[in-house]
Amino acid sequence: MHSVQKVSIQPDLRGAQLVLLPHLRKRSVGEKVRFLGCVMGYDPTTATLTLEHDVHPVTSKAGSPMKTIARVDAHLVLDCLYWDKVRVGEWLNVLGYVEKHKIEGGKFGQEYLPVKEQPQYQPALFVVNIQATYIWSTGPMDIDRYVQTVRVLEAELSG
Fold it and tell me: How far is CA 80 from the centre of its chain?
């Protein structure tokens, strides 16, 4: 009988910028990032996870709320993307590359429509597409402490 040995592959974090999900909007296309997000949905036909993490409200030029979400292409990591990682409400760490940014909903010229004038009163979404190279569960963690730690690191790097 042959025994099966499980091999654990560790992510290559070198060069990755640790950021809060709402701050992905400030990152350039092609930049390597690491962030934490809560699963809001998974489309198995496209292997796309939708993640969010509302750390603080962001407003558009017109003053209406704008939420940032990450649409994560998980094609490269399907072999380790089990059902427990795609459940709504699950918190995940993502390592990957920024592919593009776009705004969905509420746009009128260079301004964004107030929420009450948007179809179905939905706030505009700032969507950041990410090509995942590694995804892993956070396990139990203190999200508020994580946010504080990342904010301190971001302040140190920018100042």
Answer: 18
Pick the CATH number of 17-154 from 3.40.50.720, 2.40.50.140, 2.40.128.50, 2.60.40.60: 2.40.50.140
Per-residue pLDDT tens digits for 70-86: 999 999 988 888 877 88
Amino acid, res. 93: N
Q: What is the dihedral of CA 79, 47, 144, 61, to 10 degrees?
A: 150
* 8 Å CB contact between 88 and 43: no
pLDDT digits (tens, 9 = 90+) for 126-143: 889 999 999 998 888 888
pTM to 2 decimal places = 0.76
Domain boundaries, the chain: 17-154
Report the SS3 class of residue 156.
helix
Task: Say how far apart CA 48 and CA 46 lie, in whole Å.
Answer: 5
Q: Whole-angstrom Cα distance, residue 136 to residue 102? A: 26
Q: Which residue carries 């760490």 as its tokens?
A: 93
